[in-house]
Specification:
The protein has nine helices and no strands. It has helices spanning about 1-10, 15-30, 35-40, 40-50, 55-85, 95-110, 125-165, 170-200, 210-230. The protein is globular and about 55 Å long. The relative contact order is 0.22.
Length: about 230
């Protein structure tokens, strides 16, 4: 694994095409290899399942909004903490604990222990809109919780970005964009796949399979919230 990381880091300092590919792969690995980021998978899967039967297009849209919320917050947290002279993404223990509590509450909701009407689906257009807004807001909160975890994975790429930004801003921007696309692609694919599986198995909101998956996701989200207290 260390050899892979070293190889990808070296790629970032190579030709632009290979550097962009390397940034994209770093974005994918930041999800797959990080306990912090992996929580996003059960979170979005459980959220999509909570919406009931929806189209693939809407599942993609909700997943995208969730991912977009994460990216916006990560960018803001990075800028603010950087300007304050702190380690990029270091939001402090108190705010991390608050986000952890929010995750636990969402997990309990997926276990049908705590009702959160603005997350679920009741068939009306108003609730559907709330579902999309809720996905975006949860993404914003999740982005805050990631904190230093995100910037630890971004460090190799940021080193290149900072070194070339003054000379070639467009290239620096594309490197960050490639990372963001890689980071969000896994989340979006996971959320969209939830609806596809539901259609294939002909599930509905009350089916046994759907209930089991939602509860598993709830437990995983709770574990993610607990992890924030100790990482």
């Amino acid at each position: 694994m260390l050899k892979i990381f070293t190889y990808l880091t070296n790629i970032l300092y190579g030709a632009p095409v290979y550097a962009l590919i390397g940034s994209f792969i770093w974005g994918v690995l930041s999800i797959l290899l990080s306990p912090c980021h992996l929580t996003s998978i059960p979170l979005i899967v459980g959220f999509i399942d909570e919406q009931g039967r929806i189209s693939t297009k809407r599942a993609f849209f909700i997943s995208f909004l969730f991912s977009l919320g994460i990216l916006i917050t990560i960018a803001l947290v990075g800028v603010i903490t950087g300007l304050l002279g702190r380690m990029l993404g270091d939001i402090g223990k108190t705010l991390t604990y608050i986000i952890g509590i929010i995750f636990i509450i969402i997990g309990l909701h997926l276990l049908d222990i705590i009702p959160l009407p603005f997350i679920g689906w009741s068939g009306s257009q108003n609730i559907k809109k709330r579902g999309a807004i809720a996905a975006f807001v949860i993404g914003l909160l999740f982005g805050v919780a990631l904190g230093p975890c995100t910037f630890a994975y971004m460090a190799p790429m940021l080193g290149v970005v900072f070194s070339v930004a003054s000379k070639n801003f467009l290239y620096a921007f594309l490197l960050i964009l490639a990372y963001a696309i890689g980071h969000c692609s896994i989340i979006t694919i996971a959320g969209t796949s939830t609806e596809i599986v539901q259609q294939y198995l002909n599930w509905n909101a009350k089916s046994k399979g759907s209930i089991i998956i939602k509860k598993i996701c709830g437990l995983l989200v709770i574990l993610g919230g607990i992890y924030l207290f100790f990482h």
